[in-house]
Each structure stands twice: as C-alpha cells, then as structure tokens.
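Appendix C reproduces, verbatim, an entry submitted by the partner laboratory led by Prof. M.T., so that reviewers can inspect both the input and the predicted structure.
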Amino acid sequence: MRTSEVGRTNVGVSGPDLFHQAVIGMAYVSFDGDVLGANTALCELLDRESDALLSSNWADHLLPSGSTSWFDEVAPLCTGDVQTLDCNGRALLPDGGLVVVQITYTAITLGSAPALLVQVFDLSNETSALESMIDADRRFKALSTCSSDVILWVRLPPDLASQPYLQPVYGTVEWAVNGVFRQYTGWYDFDPAHLNGGDPAPLARALAEAAGGTDAILQRARTAAAEGQLQLALELAEVSGNNAAARHFRVEVLERLAAQTANGVARNIYLEAAAAERKAESVK
C-alpha cells in the first residue's frame, strides 16, 4: 500500500468529460462506499451495467483482504491523513470470477461533498504476460539453453504485446526474461565459457590482436554504427581501447542509443555511461 501527502482535489467542470472518456476504470465513491458514478471502462471491467453499479456499495465488488475491511483500508483518506492511497487486490465479477487489479483512491470534493475518486487498473494481462515469460523460460531451461538464446527467443503473444500498459517504457521483456532465468537457474547461464570466466582484459587484447589492432576494431564499430547497428557498435567499442578516439566514439554511440529508446531506465544508463566516458577523458 502506498500513500501520499495530505490534501483534497476539487473536481472541476472538465472532470466529468475526462472521467467518462478515461480508458481505465473509474468511479466516484462516497466515504460510506456508495457508488456515485462509474465510467464505461469500469462497467466493462467488472461486467456490470451502470445502473447496477450505481445502486451498489463499492466494498461489495472487492474480495476482502484478510481481516481488513475496505472501510479500514480507506480510513486514512476519510480522516484527511493522506490524499491518495494505492492498493492491490481482486475485484469480484458477477459470475464469481476474479480480476487482479491495482486501485488508486484519491480524496476529492465532488460538488461540495467529500468523496473518493477510484481508479482501477486491470493487471490481468500484466499477470498473463509474466506467466507467459516464466513458462517459456522454464521450457528453455529444461533444454539447458543458455540465457542469451532465451532472451532472443522469448516474446510476448501479440495480444499482450499490443497493450499500451505493457510497452517497454520502464522494463523490457528481455530484462524480465533474464531476471526470471536467473531466479530459476542462479548465476550460471548454461554457456560453459562463462563457467569459470576470468579477467575480460586478456580476451579483449586477444580479440584486438586477431583483428589487427584496436584501430581495426574501432573502424568496424564505426561501420556498424553507420549501418544503424548501435548495439554491435557499442560492444565492439568496448574492446577498442581507451584512447581519446575510442572514448569519443563510445560517447557518440551511447547518446544515440539514449536518444532512440523509449525506455527511461535504459536512457538514464546510456547517458550516465556517456558522462562517465567524458569525465574519464577530461581527467587525462
């Protein structure tokens, strides 16, 4: 459960339009739990008609969480101790089924009366996505497949990959697969070359010697970057030495990767690495 600072939002004139057009389930609920309003998305999520929701109590639509009632859960909002509160739970469907949801409650003033704005996020597809990745990971693990191959092969089913809230803006399928793989197998990735891997510096030197020197590797990295293969360019640049030309090139590739990704975590990592390369060069 997560809370935020004290305060109360007043629902203005634009509120009703935004409320009814929202793609997530939303409701206005009194402090006693009476449903005062419900948008179309919530009716579809809970598989109920609007009239049925408006004549009900919000607590009736939630599976109780242990001994804590809904009224106990939202009490800090009703007393004004917090403004918003996030809860994970399960919503009840008319046929007895359950929907895994995350609910955000916000203390508001509806007209002149205190009330709660309820936002309901359907986590069912998110759960299915995780189950899909875990299942694929387990199957590949049974084949003693190395993690790098699993990461390349596992993809979300199209119906899940197209969901707006499953887009890779924070995490990625590849990162999740890697995490699940390590959860079930530990540190070993089923590549015997990594079983007793040592200092990577000798390998980098050997690769440079085989390629005809670090300048040759850097040139190949530049070619890869020109062709738009930025990940390959970055990996080649990692073994192209630490001279000024190599560092400047790594900064260029890192900043290009940062500019083209929609993932906030990845962007931050790329930019931090670029800043570190600049700092290392300025120290010299």
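The chain has 14 helices and seven strands. Additional entries are available on request from the coordinating office.
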